Amino acid sequence: MLKGSLRSGILVILQLRFNGEQFQVIGPRHPILAVLGEDVILPCTLVPAMNAENMELGWFRTTFSQTVFIYWNHWEQTEEQMAEYRGRTSLVRGCLTEGHAAMHLRQVRVSDNGMYTCFFRHGGFYEEADLEVKVAGMGSDPQVHIEGPEEDGVRLVCKASGWFPKPQVQWRDLSGNNFPALSETHSQDTEELFSVEATLVVRDSSVGNVTCSVLNPVLGQEKAMAIYIPEPFFPQASPWKPAFAVILTMLGLLLLGACYFIRKAHSRRMQVRQEKEHQQRLKKQEQQAKEEVLKAIGKTTKGKLGADLDVYRLCKSLISDVCSLVDWRKEQFQMHLSWKDPSLLYCDEKCSVLGLKGITSGRWFWEVEIENELFSKWTLGVCRKDVRRTGNYLESSQRGFWVMGKGNNKYFAQTDPETCLSPRQDPCRVGVFLDYSEGDVSFYNMIDGSHIFSFPPISFSGALFPYFMLRYGGKHSQPIFFKKYFSLVVDGHNTFI
User: Are 210 and 158 in contact (CB under 8 A)?
Assistant: First the structure.
């Protein structure tokens, strides 16, 4: 009887000792959010709370062979650690005595996304818990441009890159109504970051602004860009087309008239010059006759004549009258050019003109038709009135010029630094769109209806003026001829006046 009681007591003591060494490992209930490029903490907790300084601690991926971090015998062990985690992990030691252990992971990557196992071992007993890390990162701002007309609408393309996980694209109008995307494609680069390209066909010409937003579904954050679609880009018939034809015809007649008056003025100057040269020849012949008579009667010498003949010289002034008269009530530009001497058209100074009246509000759209030869040079757009336009000045957005042009058989936008452009087709007719309140200056190829370039949005102050470079400076500079152009004003309802 005594022996049986002794055995029962020993079993109870051993059972209590064994149960005293048992514990549970608890991980986070919800996934841990980790932002690309930043640091993250992966915590685990012992229940009941006990000192974990003398335990073996470890964090693994799907199997124990994929070692992320091991702490054992008071040291961090790196022999079995995966190469991609070396130098990026450490133990948070502050709360080990209270049963709280955590691994510090630095510079989060896309490959860190997924499941982890937290492992604790003391003596012959061990426990583990699973935890999930969700990696997320914001990519580039979306870029939206007009691809061109398609069927009965306008095709828009929105692109963004460097996102994780796969982003979501939404198209909206000014009222927040969603458009169904025509297509949406995703791809991943070598770093597993996502790029997205979405297309949309807008068929309602009264929509105006369309916004493309790219959403990160994990962070719940988005980036967006809006673009304005001018009504002339829609392929349906417009009641303004006959008016456009009339305006273009009138501009053509005005240019022909200007050419006639320039040629007439040139002819008049040539007649005056020839008359002066004729008078000089008569004076010279008269002087020679006088010399011969004096020699004949022996009353002259072989000396020089008493006075030299005057030589006619042309004035070197570059241009007498260059003006750009803009009739804003008719919404059309009328440019009249007259030159003091056509032989001096090709001198060494730049010459540019502005619209007569400035733009301080509203939306404006005008087209310019250009003699766009192979090696022609031209620049057009808008600028502030107080910019420097004397001498060989420079054009850039930082100096108050928002212009594009062509030079050395290449197209460019005068940003800082300069932006090279690659239009699908040579723009012989350029559309300029100015939204003063939104700070938008955009250029369009009116030959194929494609978008050429948009300057980044800017807060304008003061009046802006249409800008035309008529001649570049230089020894072989040629004058620039803008053949035809007209403008339209867009009101607050996104319709043309």
Answer: no
Asked if residues 486 and 327 have their Cβ atoms less than 8 Å apart, the reply is no
8 A C-beta contact, residue 118 and residue 128: yes
Cα separation, 292 vs 119, in Å, equals 127
For residues 112 and 35, what is the distance between their CA atoms, to the nearest angstrom?
A: 10
Q: How many C-beta neighbours within 10 Å does residue 447 have?
A: 16
Q: Where are the domains of the chain?
A: 21-136, 143-233, 243-278+318-490
Local structure of 337: helix, strand or coil = strand
Residue 301 and residue 351: Cα distance in Å, rounded?
54
The domains spanning 21-136 and 143-233 adopt the same CATH topology: yes
Place of tokens 């229940």: 47
pLDDT tens for 418-474 read 999 999 888 988 999 999 999 999 999 988 888 899 999 999 999 999 999 877 766
Distances (CA, A) of 8 to 17, 18, 19: 14, 15, 16
How many Å apart are CA 370 and CA 353, to the nearest integer? 16
Task: Give yes or no for a contact between 26 and 129, defined as CB atoms under 8 angstroms apart.
Answer: yes
Report whether 243 contacts 195 (CB < 8 A): no
> Strands, E, within 164-193: which ranges?
168-173, 178-179, 183-188
* DSSP state at residue 362: S
| Residue 201 and residue 150 in contact, taking contact as beta carbons nearer than 8 Å | yes
Tell me the pLDDT tens digit for each residue of 90-125: 999 888 888 899 999 999 999 999 999 999 999 889
Give the residue, 271 or 164, on which the prediction is more confident.
Answer: 164
Q: How far apart are the C-alpha atoms of 54 and 78, rounded to whole Å?
A: 18
Q: What is the architecture of the domain spanning 21-136? A: Sandwich (2.60)
Q: Is the pLDDT of residue 303 over 80?
A: no
Which tokens go with 398? 């930082």
Q: 143-233: which CATH topology?
A: Immunoglobulin-like (2.60.40)
To the question of pTM greater than 0.85 for the whole model, the response is: no
Per-residue pLDDT, 313: 31
CATH architecture of 243-278+318-490: Sandwich (2.60)
* Residue 368 parent element (H or E): strand 363-370
Cβ neighbors of 495 (< 8 A, separation 6 or more) are 206, 231
